[in-house]
Amino acid sequence: MSVVTEAQRQQFEEEGYFILDSVIDAASLALLRDECQVALDRKHAEMDASGESSQGITHRGQRYFISNCFKVQPRLREFLFSELMADICRSTLGDEAFLFWEQFVVKGRQGMKFSWHQDSGYVGDPDHKPYLTCWCPLDDVSEENGTVYVLPFSHVGIRSWVKHERDPETNDKVGYFGDQRGVPVVCPAGSIAVFTSYNFHSSGPNQTDELRRVFLAQYSCEPIKKGDELWGNAEPVLVAGERQAGGIDS
């Protein structure tokens, strides 16, 4: 039986998002937390070596976006190609799904906010089909520690790619300038907020003295390309509805 209910499928079709509470098992959550620390340590070593305090939208001590970790941290494949993630893909994307992108998103103690954007706004080709974002908090998330806010389609009236502008101070790409507050994702660690790459979302500052850690797994219904060039990754997760091993024992 799928973890995604019929009501959640309907909400996904109408509003572009739904939330699964406490669906990541304890062992997987521990794995993701361990691998998050490995990624943070590696990022700090890179920044120490380069003498940089910021890299793109990463700002040391404030917030971190550490992507494609699965290529050097193969244990992450156990989660990325798990039956849980295949089930979510099958319920939203259909019988064909590919791993497109993944990253750890960590807000430091008293860490900074993140601007309103579509994940598709960071993809250079506006003609791609919307892909799937699975926002997996590794800590309990609240408005106080900088959780994500999602704009349902009915709140903003936009269901397509929008050209974004880059904020010169933070390097964020910004695509929404309205006054909608959005729906805050308040849930325990091990939950998953599932939304399309066309849904606008943002996050507030972390106002606590603890890290706010998230693992972001993104999947597409087909390889995303810019011309003939592959954008991101395209490792099969589902083929004709069947889960693929993804380089791990099935």
The dominant shape is globular
What is the N-to-C succession of helices and strands? HEHEEEHHEEEEHEEEEEEEEEE
Largest sheet: 8 strands, antiparallel
Secondary-structure-based class equals alpha+beta
CATH superfamily: q2cbj1_9rhob like domain
CATH architectural arrangement: Sandwich
Question: Uncertain spans, ≥5 residues at pLDDT below 50?
Answer: none
Rg of Cα set: 17 Å
Question: Mind telling me the CATH class?
Answer: Mainly Beta
Number of helices: 5
Q: Strand share of the residues?
A: 25-35%
Descriptive terms for the model:
single chain, 250 residues, Jelly Rolls, eight-stranded antiparallel sheet, 5 helices, globular
Question: What would a concise description of this structure say?
Answer:
The protein has 250 residues and is α+β, with helices and mostly antiparallel strands. Helices cover 21% and strands 28% of the residues.
Q: Could you please describe the fold and organization of this structure?
A:
With 250 residues, the protein is an alpha+beta fold. The protein has one domain (6-243): Jelly Rolls, CATH 2.60.120.620. It contains five helices and 18 strands. Strands 1, 4, 5, 7, 12, 14, 17 and 18 form an eight-stranded antiparallel sheet that branches. A four-stranded antiparallel sheet has the order 6-13-8-11, with no helix packed on it. A hairpin with a 6-residue loop joins strand 9 (165-166) and strand 10 (173-174). The longest helix is centred in the first third of the chain and has 25 residues, at 26-50. It starts with 5 loop residues before the first helix and ends in a 7-residue tail after the last strand. The mean pLDDT is 95.
